[in-house]
Amino acid sequence: MNLDTADLRLLRVFVTIVESGGFAAAQSKLNLSLSTISTHVSGLETRLGVTLCRRGRGGFSLTTEGQAVYAEAMRLLGSLGQFDARMRSLRDKLHGTLAIGLVDNTITDENAPFERVFARFVAAAPEVRLDIATKAPDELLRDVVTGTMQVAVASFPRIVLGLAYDDLYNELQCFYCGKDHPLFAVPDEQIDFDEVRRHRIVGRDYWGGRDLKIFAISGAHAVVSDMEAEARLILSGAFLGYLPEHFARPFVADGRIRPLRPDLFAREPLFQLAYDPNRAENPALALFRRIVIDELANHKKVPKSTLQALPA
Length: 312
Fold this sequence. Notes:
The protein is an alpha/beta fold. The chain has helices spanning 5-20, 23-30, 34-48, 64-92, 114-124, 137-146, 193-196, 227-235, 245-253, 262-265, 283-298, 304-309; strands at 53-54, 61-62, 97-102, 129-134, 151-154, 164-170, 173-178, 202-204, 222-224, 240-244, 257-259, 270-275. It has three domains: 5-92, Winged helix-like DNA-binding domain superfamily/Winged helix DNA-binding domain (Arc Repressor Mutant, subunit A); 97-169 and 270-309, D-Maltodextrin-Binding Protein, domain 2; 173-265, 3-Layer(aba) Sandwich (D-Maltodextrin-Binding Protein, domain 2).
């Protein structure tokens, strides 16, 4: 016989009756009347051409044929359950590519545990291909707007209308000079804004001078697009400039650079996760956001407002 949906429904009723121990006991599970249950069993017997059970004053019992049908029905329904589970797995499994943008030189920042983020993401979505690029913040924003990237993490120089942002943490940046710079041996108490303005200062092209606004200078004396280039200029002894404290730490420990007046010049730009809200339902993007924020929450760095705004 060729089984159809009605036959499967009748087999499920029959299995429930057998597992319950009789028609009456199966009523509550099936939410059917005794007469309806009896009609279903009679219909199944007609379809199969065999008597499945004895019911009456002597109680409920399976015939030999009924026992065989019950065993086969269990195998059939079990296979259907496995098929359904497999189909759900295929439907729900994450596929495709997630393009992620990061700003340079965050690997030394203990507040940015992206190695753990990537490990957790790969464990949760092994079929997703990661495409990771390191670029300047303004380029990252451009790529998120155009859809080249789904998500970017950086301290952004501007807010782009149409994008959404998760606040993550603040990065401590100090103002440094190299050991061959005239200010290297000058005590902090003798250094002020006027003194700094007498020397060459490095600026970042993507900040458009806004990062040097506190010094009230007309323009930077050198412009860079990344932290490594700025560090080289500072190490040359010819320039002053900002570096992330975590990135500069080894150079400070080696005596090659020193921070100038952290009490006066230090700054803490906000790092954010930027994405297009129109693509927020992308499963891979949603998973990445949840993992990033969860890891930072474990560090007690992510603001409560970000946690509250995160989708379940």
